[in-house]
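#struct-help
A.M.: can someone run this one for me? Single chain, 303 residues.
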Amino acid sequence: MSPGETSVVVESWEGSVRLPPQSEKLSEPTKGSGQGRRGETRLSGHIIISELIRNMELGKFDMNYSVLLPCVFTVYLNPQDHTTLSSIFNLVLEDARRALRDRVTELNSPPKILGLARKGKAAKEHKIACQDWYIEFLPDSEVPVGDIEIHSELNETAEPGYRGTKTTLIGREPSATTMPRAEHATTQRVASTRRVDTTYADVRYQDDSGPQTYAVNQNRVRIGRGGEDQPMDLALYTNDEVSREHAVIRRDPATGAFFLTDLSTNGTTLNGKNLQKGVEQPLPDRAEIGLGGVLKLDFEVRK
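D.P.: on it. Structure tokens below:
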């Protein structure tokens, strides 16, 4: 293959998109490509997240009325890259989940012509089988420096024949060591949960689906009923007294302090006191949050 050529290989549920091999030098760096003057790839959060989105789209599973997308990802990195990036994996994970969520929203948005929604046959809904995306970063010496290898599954419990896909950033066949499928799925869920178990707080509540506990492991949590074009982090099953996007909990990563903002039509209370809409208020380590007069959330910071 001559320098600069790109080939694409997608086989069944295992796909590899080939880019110029790392050994081929680029005479000039390409703007925004992540390539240095010597042709070596410098990994960034943007590259990792773009590869996760690409893997998700390649690994889709078509059904009659919907499209199932992978929601469990194992990201294999060379041990050198893994060590370099290990201190920011939580931040990459937070951004990746947001980007994956936004991409699914885009896929479910009606196509437009000149800014107007195009009428026609209803498109299939794109969705995931998991409650959220599970992403694990593992070192593997089979992965070259600067490469990313991603293995995905359609569900937390992997079923033979119903898998996501395997992709690499650089032109080579996927080679990372994989465990037996059942063990891999279980380990991945546990490892991902452990990594995300930089859980900062818990929100306990009871909506129409029963008693629930939401683990706060990100710095921004959108709360509300949500909708097809308005996904929430903490999605509530309740009546329309609760707005689609009712409130936001924000954590300051520098201090660990929490804040609450009301965005609703019917109001939010903090320990019984009405909040002014759009004005951020400090959120105590233990607090009761009232939504629209119909639902209460018990918030508690983990120590």
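A.M.: thanks! Residues 142 and 176 are 6 Å apart (CA to CA).
D.P.: also worth noting: Residues 89-108 form the longest helix (20 residues).
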